[in-house]
Amino acid sequence: MKVILPSNKKLTKNLKTISFTNPKNVYIPLVVYNDRDVTPLVKKGDYVTKNMVIGKTKGNFRMPIFASVSGEVLGFEEKLYADGTHIKCVVIENDFKDALSEEDIVLKKLNEYSKEEFIDRLKESGIVGMGGSGFPSYIKYNCNDKIKTIIVNAVECEPYITADYTLLMEEAESILETVDALIEINQAENAIIAIKKGEEKLKEVINSFIGTYLNIKLVEVPNFYPMGWEKNLVKFITKKKYKKLPLEIGVVVSNVSTIYSMYEALKYGKPCVERLITFTGEGLNTPGNVYVRNGTLVKEVIEFIGGYTESDKNLIAGGPMMGHTVDEDLIISMDLNCVLVKDNEKNPKINPCLRCGKCEDVCPAKLSPVMIKDNVKNITFVRTLQPEKCIECGLCSFICPAKIPVREFVKEAKHSVCEVKK
Amino acid sequence: MIKFIKEHGTYIKSNNTNSKIMRDVLIALTPIVLFAFYKNGYIPYTKGLISLYGLLYPLIMVLVAVVSSIFFEMSYYYVIHKRHFKELFKTTYSFMPGLFLALILPINTPLYLVVLGSFFAIIFGKMLYGGFGQNIFNPALIGRLFLVVSFPLVMASSSAYFNPFERQTYDGITSVTPLANTFLNQGYTYDDVVRPYGSMLDFFFGNIPGSLGEISAFLILIGLAYLIFRKAVKWRIPLMYILTSSILLFSIAMFKDFDLSFVLFHLLSGGLLFGAAFMATDPVTSPVNKWGQVLYGIFLGILTIALRFIMKSPESVMISILTMNIFVYFIDQYAIKINFNFNKILKPIIAIWLLMIILPLYITTTFNKVESKVTIIDKQINSNVYVYRASARGYVDNIVLDIKIVEGTIEEIIIVEQKESFIARIEDANYLNQIIQNQDNLKELDAVSQATYTSNAIKEIVMYVMEDYNNER
Question: Is A154 a domain residue?
């Protein structure tokens, strides 16, 4: 069963973007993807310049972490990360100078980079999947298999979020330029920009720039959730299925924001320290899309753009479907695409399960959430139900007529099954 | 000071609720209840056949069933769990088993049986398993099963199924329901099975005797369509159930050269449609997996047809749903594997194919007409007056005739014993006189329409006796 969610995007759609680039302090989270084992390269009292590398992950990816402002390192502190957990951060006091260190970065025209240079640039600029995964992008492109098609994911299927939409509206020209360069660098055959059906304005804007790029096509995808999920998107566009990675069928998928940060990295040598985030929800006085720096306190941003309405809130890091409730301690990270502030409503009472099977009907991973929920304590059996396939899209919790938070049960099963495997 | 409250789950929710689903089911059932009132209350009342109480009886039955089922459930909660009525009433839907029970009971079920049935439905069908959402068997069917087993005479008599108006119209039909009628049948003809109750349209619109809510296929299908439209039902189950049954019935009809009304008749009787649309789809006691639902529906169809024709059981729908309820857990466990690996569907498909081929073949052999054997019980010879007493199998049971032959001519035929359903038609047609008048040319005498089997049996007896008489002379 296909599910169309209430979009709620009107709140921030077609508003001018705001910039908030002068936070008092920044708290740079020491994490890339799921790797929290980071070597800090600075200590308390050091002076750091903007875009300076202040840490490096120890794991397989060896990703750098950057200072997003210039100033003195005040030390280390734990703050709330987008996934709802606490994380060690480097605290930098902003001196509002945005002083840059003198480094020699060889800049070229976008399409003159060789593949090796391109991969290096992605890695050195710390570019990660900005649609929510936070996965290092250079890994995706650094492969021996041939890349045939590059898909630019601008579907943004979760309600409320308009960051990708706005970015594409404003920066269509540079994004198309980057995509064209990506085709050339990776010797791909073509690229596809996937947007949602019915976005006429966006279509118009892209079409006005796309004329010269013969290898880039605009594809409209239906307004289902989770259409933006890689597997669904690739299947819809190429009509092919893959097992683990889309590369198996010669496809690479990147989010619009990721493409834009690639543009900045390739063209200007800027690392990935700034992004556009949707601040939205009924709980905010003036919702909008805001350019913010990595490590900015969400509290500061919200104060800057106009503050909260009165009454108790749910502050959600991420969209309404996949996000987590957090509090004002939340910091901006590069894989966060939305901060949603909703007035706290009394949760509907949880009723007994009716076994209507709707959760299974809607599950995009073809799981049986209700059976997983029933057997969550029985690990040997729940394993056969493959909860590790869950993408945590939240449709099961959304659709449930008994208002059971089904997804949380599946997540629990997923974690216990994954732990047993380890 | 603004508080930030942490919660799990998604932060938008669909507007689905359990109550909405239940409300849709109630809306789908409303026309069915109203029709039961119209047919069994209003019509006999306007004909002056029943009192005001009789007029309201269908509604009273529903009301008693609903109230008693709420009462039993709430008492159970109060006595066993010390939980109070108020917190439970809105969430456990305690009226549902009672409502369904009333709809699958014969229209004249005495109220004390309704109460008893709903007691069993609630306590043994629902609460002992842990209450709403935990029960394995469909509670309403448990209630009915109890009544059918414990009070077979009340539950299977024509007085339970016929309303006063029908008792007048179908004068001469002694069998209970159209379906119960055909089991006695050796074969199928439209004339014998459908015609006595009117036409196929009467079956479709529900103008036949039967349980309170099961008879109007038209309203049941409308209710089902509404539920599917509202996404409040596991639609794969009724679809596959009806489809499988139709295919099986169709094959039987093909093998036996019955006309297609055979398929329609069996679909429209015995509560099959109501069972498929409302009983088999009870969300709690049916599979959650979509492939599970498909398999469940198919097996229900196979089981129903098998029970109906092999066990000759008019309760085949109820028994097959209760039986399949047992397997729901296993079906779910198997069917989830089909989600992950589609090849897993092969085994059940092969099993189903085999069953679908073997079953109709087997059933057609059970249809073989038993050779009607005429036996001469007694022969009294008084000079040239012969009085034979002979019997043969009729439509329902043996028919015993006394035949008086004087000098080679049949003078008198008396029916000594019979239990035939349509004997009135024989009398109306003056068939015995017809036989006497045409005794020289009996072979070409037509049978009485709508009483073919009875009249043929009578004819056979007479012909056999004549042969015996001629041999002796």
Answer: no
